[in-house]
């Protein structure tokens, strides 16, 4: 049910050029991204963070964990 709802919301938001952010995720929604669609500059920002903060110690939680961001 939550997957279907998320896909419906994503479709509506994407059609108007917006972005969706889940502020509180349901317990059974581990495979749903906390925000979507991914912004076009996200990979660039993650590469910049990798360069300036290779241990990811500054501002933890600012980006998804490295293995999840796809950069």
What keyword list fits this structure?
71 residues; 3 helices; 41% helix; flat
Walk me through what this model shows.
The protein is mainly alpha-helical. The chain contains 3 helices and 2 strands. The protein has helices spanning 2-15, 42-52, 66-69; strands at 20-21, 35-36. Strands 1-2 form a two-stranded antiparallel ribbon. The longest helix has 14 residues, at 2-15. It is flat, with a radius of gyration of 14 Å.
Write down the overall geometry.
Answer: flat
* Overall average pLDDT: 79
Strand/helix succession: HEEHH
| Count of individual helical segments | 3
The portion of residues forming beta strands comes to: 5-15%
What is the spatial order of strands in the main beta sheet?
Answer: 1-2
Distance between the termini: 30 Å
Sketch the major β-sheet.
Answer: 2 strands, antiparallel
Structural class: mainly alpha
Percent range of helical residues: 40-55%
Count the beta strands: 2
Radius of gyration from CA coordinates: 14 Å
Which parts are unreliable, with pLDDT below 50 for 5 consecutive residues or more? Answer: none
Topology:
Layout: H1 2-15, E1 20-21, E2 35-36, H2 42-52, H3 66-69
Antiparallel strand pairs: 1-2
What is this structure, in a nutshell?
The protein has helices at residues 2-15, 42-52, 66-69; strands spanning 20-21, 35-36. With 71 residues, the protein is mainly alpha-helical.
